[in-house]
Structures are given as C-alpha cells and as structure tokens.
Design goal:
Elements (H helix, E strand, L loop, with lengths): L1 H12 L4 H21 L4 H37 L7 E6 L5 H13 L3 E7 L2 E6 L12 H10 L3
Antiparallel strand pairs: 1-3, 2-3
Helix pairs in contact: 1-2, 3-5, 4-5
Length: 153
C-alpha cells in the first residue's frame, strides 16, 4: 500500500525534486502506519484483495451483461401487453459471508424485473415482476460466481 500511495503521489505531483520525493515517502509511510494502527490494515488482506480483483472485475462485467439481458426481457414482457404475474420467491443461499450475501442481494436488485425484499440469515425473499423471472434464482449462476469470489477464487 505504501508503494501505491507513493506512486500516486509522484503521478499527481508531476515534477520530481528531492524534496517532493522525500515528502512523498514520509507521507506514504505515515498514511500506511495510520491505516495499520487504526483501520485494521494488514498486508495479507491487501494481497487477498489483489488476488480477488481480476475475478471481481470479471463478475462486474458479467453482471452488467445480465442487467442488459434482463432489461430487454423486462421491456419485452411489459410491451407485449400480456398480463404480468408478480411473484414472491423465498430461497436459502449457501453464501457464508455477509459481504457475499449483500453482493447477491444488490445484484438481484440491480437486475431489472427482480427486487430483494428481505435478506436474513442466508434466507432471501425476492419479488419478481413475473413468475418467469424467478427461474434460476435458487442455485443461480450469480450465486455460484459470488461463491467463487468468497472462496478466494
């Protein structure tokens, strides 16, 4: 982290003199020390974050694609003139961490046509615009991808 902070300092500064380099080193070290002491920073956590980053970026691009697909499905369902049949579905997830559960909850809500109504102790209650939108919520690809993020890739 200290190297990244120093690199950012030098990038934003634009000109390099001895004073600027020394100031950057001192400030980077002080920020690193503050984070380590008061924000529960550890190099191990940082390494875990870096290891998960490519898979998280991959998940983000996959989710954006799913949002577009669901958006078109929702649009066609509404414009078709057929009656929508709102549906509530409850299911339990195998995700272990709060972060994973929140990510699943928010991903479902971001996907057009579905909304996470409640999420407690691994049990989700999801409202869908039509019962066809509930297909695949139990043991979904979304949950599998988040589980891989939870398991350090």
């Amino acid at each position: 982290m200290a190297l990244a902070l120093f690199g950012l300092w030098m990038l934003l500064e634009g000109r390099w003199t001895v004073e600027i380099v020394v100031t950057g080193i001192v400030l980077s070290a002080l920020i690193w020390l503050f984070c380590w002491k008061f924000l529960d920073y550890s190099p191990r956590r940082e390494w875990e974050f870096i290891r998960r980053l490519p898979r998280a970026v991959g998940y983000l691009f996959w989710l954006i694609g799913q949002i577009f697909i669901a958006g078109f499905r929702t649009m066609s369902r509404i414009w078709s003139g057929r009656e929508v049949r709102p549906h509530l579905i409850s299911f339990r997830t195998a995700l272990r961490t709060d972060t994973g559960r929140v990510l699943l909850s928010q991903s479902i809500t971001l996907t057009p046509g579905t909304l996470t109504v409640d999420q407690r102790d691994g049990r989700f209650l999801v409202h869908a615009l039509d019962d066809a939108f509930t297909e695949g919520l139990r043991d979904s690809e979304m949950e599998k991808r988040i589980r891989r993020l939870e398991n350090n890739g």
